[in-house]
Amino acid sequence: MITTETVTSYLQRLASRAPAPGGGAAAALHAAQGAALVSMVAEFTSGPRYVEVQEQAELIAQRAKQHMREAIHAAEEDERLFGLLSDAYFLPKDDEEQKLIRSTTIRKATIEAAAPLISTVDIASKIINLAQDLLPIANRAVSSDIAAAGESARAALGTALVTLEMNIAAIKDEVERERLGLVTNLASEMIGQAQKLSCEVRSAVTV
């Protein structure tokens, strides 16, 4: 499990032929890193110089840490659910009954496998919003890490987006396709917000 292994162990598994972890787990961990970076900047926004905004910074740090935990959970859920989807493709298909069971299982597993990706888009979007709130009050010495947080969230969104689009292509249920389509629209919108955040940080640190 991702929460109990080293970074090296996780990367070795990611680099292998194992069906999971894959892109979905990687997306969620991008989001987790973004959340951690937001928390770090908020933690540094403390002391006498920041007394007027310290309470706001502390609240941002608390929320960021919560999102970090949620993102790690999404990574583990993606690994678990994608493993079930992979297993479904190995079900027997020797007769019509087996083929029906296999196709039904694959269809259900494909829909369920989208859940952690949806969570990742939601979490990454919240991280970007927190980073935007933090930027005007942040300790200038570490404000570049707000851009780093935004870029991590943007990586999460971009990875989740392309994975969701592949899921949509494999789903025939129009209700599910529409539901996932709304999530991809949000991901695309927030990718733009992340890019804007990076530009704002770069402009601020070069003044």
Structure, explained:
With 207 residues, the chain is an all-alpha fold. The protein has a single domain (20-78, 116-205), classed as Four Helix Bundle (Hemerythrin (Met), subunit A), CATH 1.20.120. Helices cover 78% and strands 0% of the residues. The protein contains 7 helices and no strands. The chain has helices at residues 7-14, 23-44, 54-88, 96-113, 115-134, 144-170, 174-205. The longest helix is centred in the middle third of the chain and has 35 residues, at 54-88. The radius of gyration is 19 Å and the shape is elongated.
Quick structural gist:
With 207 residues, the chain is mainly α. The protein is built from 7 helices and no strands.
Helix and strand arrangement:
Blueprint: H1 7-14, H2 23-44, H3 54-88, H4 96-113, H5 115-134, H6 144-170, H7 174-205
